[in-house]
Amino acid sequence: MTLSEIQIVSNENGEPTAVIVPIEMWREIESERETRYLLSSEAMKNRILDARSRGEGIEVEQALAKLRI
Question: CA separation (Å) from 43 to 35, 38, 39, 47, 50?
Answer without folding.
Answer: 14, 9, 9, 6, 10
